[in-house]
Write a structure and sequence with these properties.
By secondary structure, the chain is α/β, with parallel strands linked by helices. It has one domain (47-226): Rossmann fold, CATH 3.40.50. The protein contains 5 helices and 11 strands, in the order E-E-E-E-H-E-H-E-H-E-E-H-E-H-E-E. A 7-stranded mixed β-sheet has the order 7-6-5-8-9-11-10. The longest helix is centred in the N-terminal third of the chain and has 10 residues, at 49-58. It starts with 6 loop residues before the first strand and ends with a strand. Bound molecules: S-adenosylmethionine (SAM). S-adenosylmethionine binds at residues 42-43, 51, 73-80, 97-100, 103, 130-132, 148-149, 157-158, 161. Keywords: Polyamine biosynthesis. This is Spermine/spermidine synthase. InterPro entries: SAM-dependent_MTases_sf. One of its GO terms (biological process) is polyamine biosynthetic process.
């Protein structure tokens, strides 16, 4: 008889500001962060190639650049953060904004090894809170902003996130980027209306289709919006 592998609940977290609930589960050696209710899986340790591609594509212009500054929106399991650290020089800084404090704790604990403990890197700074709060200064601060807080350019984790993808917000994000800076956004689908919004916010826009894992699996889209 085939042995069933149990799914073990490792943790639960309430998303701030009347959000839903996140759970962290483990099945065999794999982890999943899910939104309880109808939404389902937010991130799995089985598939992370497109999360890595978000950093590789969004930071491609930073190879060898001293003192680069990168913002990662959404820690998840740390794959995007880990790949951003790989992509930038030793003198650079990568700020990761994470809305749910428990996600940071999970990354210090059981999730840490998934992406090679990127929180331990001395170039990492953690901002506990909504990534949108960091856009309020409107000062050209970052060489790259890498956003993966939802499943695409519409609210998924939290209703408040819908404002992030508005034309006004995209103008604000553009103002946060240094000359030749890049905003990269992860999406589970291609949304032509988002390309239009990015263009309206005066970005140079392209997108790449990447596979979920090692050239296989679902097709995901990485939007690359450059300051020209
Ligand atoms: C899909 S996961 C990110 C996966 C990540 N790219 C990785 O490599 O594992 C989304 C993450 O964004 C966080 N999040 C959602 N909305 C946020 C917001 N407005 N500000 C900061 N973090 C947010 C979630 O709690 C979750 O940890």
């Amino acid at each position: 008889m085939k042995k069933t592998i149990p799914t073990v609940l490792l943790g639960k977290a309430i998303i701030p500001n009347d959000g839903g609930e996140l759970t962290l589960t483990q099945r065999d050696g794999d982890f999943a962060i899910s939104l309880t209710g109808v939404h389902g899986e937010l991130m799995s340790s089985r598939m992370y190639s497109s999360e890595v591609a978000l950093s590789e594509l969004g930071c491609a212009h930073l190879e060898g650049v001293e003192n680069a500054k990168v913002l990662v929106g959404g820690l998840g399991m740390g794959f995007t953060l880990g790949a951003a650290l790989q992509a930038v020089s030793i003198s650079s800084e990568v700020v990761v904004a994470e809305l749910v404090p428990e996600v940071v704790e999970w990354n210090k604990g059981p999730l840490g090894e998934c992406a090679g403990r990127p929180l331990d890197d001395t170039r990492t700074r953690v901002y506990l809170g909504d990534v949108a709060e960091l856009f309020l200064t409107q000062q050209a601060t970052y060489d790259a902003i890498l956003l993966d807080v939802d499943n695409g350019p519409e609210a998924f984790t939290h209703d408040d996130n819908s404002a992030l993808y508005s034309i006004d917000s995209l103008h604000t994000i553009r103002a946060m980027l240094r000359p030749k800076g890049v905003l990269a956004v992860w999406s589970a689908w291609h949304d032509p209306s988002f390309t239009k919004k990015l263009k309206k916010a005066r970005f140079d826009v392209s997108y790449k289709t990447v596979r979920a894992h090692k050239g296989k699996g679902s097709k995901h889209t990485i939007y690359l919006a450059k300051v020209n």
